[in-house]
C-alpha cells in the first residue's frame, strides 16, 4: 500500500541519518582524542598523529557536506533486494550495506535502466526529502508485473527540479541524472572526451559530476595528481562553486582562464582583435624570438676590470659559450648557469695568466681568483648584457611596451598587428596574456638557480616523506578499516599529511600554486572559447592528455574561440579524441529554445538545437520601442517580470554600452536588489553583458537591443544565442534598433 510504503521509507531514511550521525560522532571523538594527545612524543609519533587528525577532519567535512538530500533513490531488483542510492556509501558496523554511493558501478542502473533495458531493475523509486523527512516518493515501474502492487506518481522528480526557482548558484543533479548524461559521467578516464551539446543540455552539470565520479573511481591516482576544472570567468566559477562540495568532493582545483598562472589575476581582454592575435599560433614563435633576443653577442671586445686587471671578453668567446649553453637544451634561465660558468672559467684563466706574467700573484690560489672574477661588478654587468636572467612578466611587459624590441622580434607581424600588441608597461595582464606568460615561463625556466635548488630540496623532502609513509601505511590502513573507511589512503596521502605543519597541503592546494603541476585529468567547460594558446597551456598542464572537454561550438563568443572542434583540437590531440553529444535541453522552455534556434539559423549559425524537455508558460515577448527609450521600457516592465519570476532571479542582458545606464535606472527603483554584475548573483535582479552571462541561468531574462548583440562591432551571433537561452521560464526582448533578421520574421506583428 502506498501509505505504508511512505511510512517504510521514512523509517529507513531516519535509520540512514542515524548512521550518519553515529559516524560523525565517532570521527569527532577520534579527532578530539588525537588533538588531546597534543604535540608530544617522537617526531614520528607527532606526524602520525597529524596524519590521523587531518584525515578525521577531511572525513568529517565530507560527512557534514552530504546532509542535504543524503539519499534520493531506491532500486528494487529481480533478486528481491532493495538497494538505496545516495551521496556516499554507508554500512553498519558489521559491514551490512545500507546505502550505495551514486558513483559505484551498481548505482549506474538507477540512471540507466529503462523498461526496454531493465538491467535487473523492477522498480526505480525517487525519494524526495525535506530536511531529514521523506516528503514524497515517485516510482518508475520497469517490470509490468509490479504495476499491480500500486505505485506512486508525481510531477516527476526531473520536472520538479527543472521548475524550481533559481538561486544564483548551481545545484547538483545527482538524483535526476539522465541516461545520456550518466554515460558521459562514467566514460573511461584516459584520452580526450568532447561533450558537445546545445544550451541547457547539462554540459556544466555533467562536467562537475564527472569530476566527482573520476575522483571516486580513480581516487588513488587523482588524489595525488589532482583534477583541474577550468571555466570561462570568475562569476561562472562562483556560480558552480557549491556543486562539488555538495557531492562530498573538495579536491578539485577550479580556475577561470584568467587565473591559470599562479599569482596573477588577469582581467578580461576587451579588444577582440587583441584576443584573436594573442590567441593565435603565431605567438609561439613571437615568445620564442623574444627569449632568444635576450641573448646578445657584443659587437666588439669588451674590457672588464677585475681587481685592477683589465680582462677581455670577445664576441667569439661569448658566441661559443652561448652555443654550448643552448646545446644543454635547458630553459633559458637554467642554461644561463652553463653560459656564466664557461665565461667565468675563461676569465679566471685570463686573470691567472696575467698575474703570472706580471709576477704579482705567482702563487695566487685559483679558487680565490675565481671568486674575484665572479664578484667583479664589471663582469656581472658584461655577462648580464649578454644573457640577462629574466622573469616571464618582465620579458613580456618589455616586449609589449617597447616598440623597438617588438620591431626587432616580431618580424612576421604587420605594423597594425604590432599596434595591437603594444601596451603600457604597467597595464594589468589580461586573459589573453596568460598563455603567453605561461609560454615564456616554460622557455625561461626557474628565474634563479636558488629557486631550482629549493624545488629540488622540496622534492627530496617529499621523497623522504613518501618512504616514511610507506612504512606506516599498513598500520594506518588497519586503523582506518576499523572505522569503516576503506582503501582511501595511499602512501602519497600520508606523505602529504606528514609534511611539516605549515606545509600540510593537499594535492589540490599544492597544485594551485605550482605552474608546472601535472594534473591527472583536466575538465574544460565552455571549451569553445579557448584559443590555440590557451589549449597549449592546458595540454602542458596534463601531459597524459586526459581531458573532458565540454562546450557548444554555436555559443562561441570569444574572438579567439573555435568554430569547429576538429580545428581546435587536432593540433593537440590529433584524431585521438572522441565526440559525445547531449541532445535534450533541460533549462529553456520549448517556445524560447525554438525561437533562439530560429534566430541563430537565420543568422547563419549552425546550432545543435536540442529538444526542450518542457513547455513554458510564456512565449518570448518582444517590445519594439522608440529610439532612446529602451531603458525606460525596461524599468516599466520590471514589475511584471519580477512578478512572473515569483521570487526567482531576473537578469537583464545588455550590450556593454547599455549595462551601466540600465543598472543605474533600476537601482533608482530597486536599490540594493540590483546586482553589480559578475559575482553578484545573490540579488534578485542582475544586469550583465552576454559575456558574463555565459554558462549562467535565470528564471526570467530581458535582453536589451538584441540587434546590437549580433552586429559584428559588438559581438557575434553566439552572444545573442547565449543571451536568449539563459531563462528557465521567461524571455523578453526590448529593441529600438532593428531586430535581427531571424527574430524580425518571428515577431513581424509584435
Ligand atoms: N538531469 C538533470 N536533472 C535536473 N536538472 C538538470 C539535469 N540536467 C541539466 N539540468 C539543469 O539544467 C540546467 C542547465 O544545465 P547546464 O547549465 O549544465 O547546461 P549547459 O549545457 O552547460 O548549458 P549552457 O551551454 O547553455 O551554459 C541547469 O539548471 C541544470 O541543473
Automatic annotation (TrEMBL):
Keyword ATP-binding: yes
Name used for this protein in its record: ATPase AAA
A GO biological-process term: recombinational repair
Cellular component GO terms, alphabetical: cytosol
Annotated SUPFAM superfamilies: P-loop containing nucleoside triphosphate hydrolases
Binding site for ATP: 197-204
Alphabetized UniProt keyword annotations: ATP-binding, Helicase, Hydrolase, Nucleotide-binding
Record keyword Magnesium present: no
Domain UvrD-like helicase ATP-binding: 176-589
Organism field: Sinomonas humi
Amino acid at each position: 500500500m502506498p501509505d505504508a510504503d511512505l511510512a517504510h521509507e521514512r523509517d529507513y531514511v531516519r535509520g540512514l541519518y542515524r548512521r550518519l550521525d553515529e559516524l560523525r560522532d565517532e570521527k569527532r571523538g577520534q579527532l578530539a582524542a588525537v588533538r588531546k594527545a597534543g604535540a608530544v612524543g617522537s617526531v614520528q609519533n607527532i606526524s602520525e598523529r597529524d596524519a590521523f587528525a587531518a584525515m578525521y577532519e577531511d572525513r568529517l567535512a565530507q560527512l557534514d557536506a552530504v546532509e542535504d538530500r543524503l539519499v534520493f533513490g531506491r532500486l528494487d531488483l529481480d533478486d528481491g533486494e532493495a538497494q538505496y542510492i545516495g551521496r556516499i556509501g554507508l554500512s553498519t558496523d558489521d559491514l551490512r550495506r545500507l546505502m550505495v554511493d551514486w558513483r559505484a558501478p551498481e548505482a549506474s542502473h538507477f540512471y540507466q535502466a529503462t523498461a526496454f533495458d531493465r538491467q535487473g531493475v523492477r522498480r526505480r523509486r525517487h525519494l524526495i526529502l525535506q530536511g531529514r523527512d521523506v516528503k514524497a516518493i515517485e516510482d518508475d515501474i520497469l517490470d509490468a508485473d509490479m504495476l499491480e502492487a500500486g505505485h506512486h506518481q508525481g510531477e516527476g522528480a526531473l520536472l520538479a527540479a527543472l521548475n524550481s526557482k533559481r538561486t544564483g548558484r548551481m545545484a547538483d543533479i545527482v538524483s535526476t541524472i539522465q541516461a545520456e548524461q550518466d554515460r558521459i559521467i562514467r566514460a573511461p578516464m584516459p584520452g580526450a572526451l568532447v561533450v558537445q551539446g546545445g544550451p541547457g543540455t547539462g554540459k556544466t552539470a555533467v562536467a562537475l559530476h564527472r569530476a566527482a565520479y573520476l575522483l571516486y573511481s580513480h581516487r588513488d591516482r587523482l588524489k595525488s595528481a589532482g583534477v583541474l576544472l577550468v571555466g570561462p570567468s570568475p562569476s561562472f566559477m562562483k556560480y558552480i562553486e557549491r556543486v562539488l562540495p555538495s557531492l562530498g568532493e573538495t579536491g578539485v582545483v577550479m580556475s577561470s582562464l584568467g587565473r591559470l598562472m599562479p599569482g596573477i589575476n588577469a582581467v578580461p581582454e576587451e579588444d577582440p582583435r587583441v584576443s584573436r592575435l594573442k590567441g593565435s599560433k603565431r605567438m609561439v614563435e613571437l615568445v620564442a624570438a623574444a627569449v632568444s633576443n635576450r641573448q646578445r653577442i657584443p659587437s666588439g671586445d669588451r674590457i672588464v676590470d677585475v681587481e685592477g686587471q683589465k680582462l677581455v671578453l670577445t664576441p667569439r668567446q661569448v658566441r661559443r659559450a652561448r652555443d654550448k649553453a643552448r646545446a644543454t637544451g635547458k630553459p633559458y634561465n637554467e642554461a644561463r648557469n652553463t653560459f656564466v660558468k664557461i665565461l667565468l672559467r675563461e676569465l679566471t684563466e685570463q686573470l691567472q695568466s696575467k698575474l703570472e706574467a706580471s709576477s704579482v700573484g705567482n702563487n695566487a690560489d685559483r679558487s680565490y681568483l675565481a671568486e674575484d672574477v665572479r664578484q667583479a661588478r664589471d663582469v656581472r654587468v658584461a655577462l648580464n648584457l649578454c644573457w640577462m636572467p629574466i622573469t616571464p612578466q618582465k620579458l613580456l611587459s618589455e616586449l609589449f611596451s617597447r616598440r623597438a624590441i617588438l620591431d626587432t622580434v616580431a618580424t612576421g607581424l604587420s605594423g597594425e598587428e604590432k599596434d595591437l600588441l603594444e601596451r603600457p608597461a604597467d597595464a594589468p595582464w589580461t586573459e589573453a596574456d596568460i598563455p603567453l606568460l605561461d609560454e615564456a615561463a616554460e622557455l625561461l625556466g626557474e628565474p634563479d638557480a636558488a629557486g631550482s635548488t629549493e624545488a629540488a630540496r622540496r622534492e627530496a623532502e617529499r621523497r623522504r616523506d613518501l618512504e616514511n609513509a610507506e612504512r606506516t601505511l599498513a598500520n594506518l590502513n588497519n586503523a582506518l578499516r576499523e572505522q569503516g573507511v576503506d582503501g582511501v589512503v595511499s602512501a602519497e596521502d600520508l606523505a602529504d599529511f606528514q609534511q611539516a605543519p605549515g606545509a600540510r597541503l593537499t594535492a589540490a592546494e599544492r597544485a594551485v600554486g605550482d605552474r608546472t603541476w601535472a594534473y591527472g585529468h583536466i575538465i574544460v567547460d565552455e571549451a569553445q572559447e579557448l584559443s590555440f594558446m590557451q589549449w597549449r597551456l592546458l595540454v602542458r598542464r596534463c601531459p597524459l592528455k586526459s581531458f573532458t572537454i565540454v562546450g557548444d561550438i554555436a555559443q562561441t563568443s570569444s574572438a579567439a574561440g573555435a568554430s569547429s572542434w576538429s580545428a581546435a583540437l587536432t593540433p593537440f590531440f590529433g584524431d585521438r579524441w572522441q565526440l559525445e553529444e547531449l541532445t535534450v535541453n533541460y533549462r529553456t522552455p520549448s517556445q524560447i529554445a525554438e525561437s533562439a534556434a530560429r534566430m541563430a539559423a537565420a543568422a547563419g549559425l549552425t546550432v545543435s538545437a536540442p529538444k526542450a524537455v518542457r513547455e513554458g508558460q510564456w512565449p518570448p515577448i518582444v517590445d519594439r520601442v522608440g529610439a532612446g527609450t529602451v531603458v525606460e521600457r525596461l524599468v516599466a516592465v520590471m514589475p511584471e517580470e519580477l512578478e512572473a519570476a515569483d521570487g526567482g532571479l531576473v537578469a537583464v542582458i545588455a550590450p556593454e554600452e547599455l549595462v551601466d545606464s540600465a543598472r543605474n535606472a533600476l537601482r533608482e527603483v530597486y536599490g540594493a536588489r540590483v546586482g553589480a554584475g559578475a559575482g553578484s548573483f545573490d540579488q534578485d535582479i542582475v544586469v550583465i553583458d552576454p559575456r558574463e552571462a555565459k554558462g549562467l541561468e535565470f528564471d526570467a531574462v530581458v535582453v536589451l537591443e538584441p540587434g546590437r548583440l549580433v552586429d559584428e562591432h559588438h559581438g557575434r551571433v553566439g552572444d545573442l544565442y547565449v543571451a536568449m537561452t539563459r531563462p528557465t521560464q521567461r524571455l523578453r526582448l526590448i529593441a529600438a534598433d532593428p531586430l535581427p533578421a531571424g527574430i524580425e520574421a518571428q515577431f513581424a506583428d509584435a
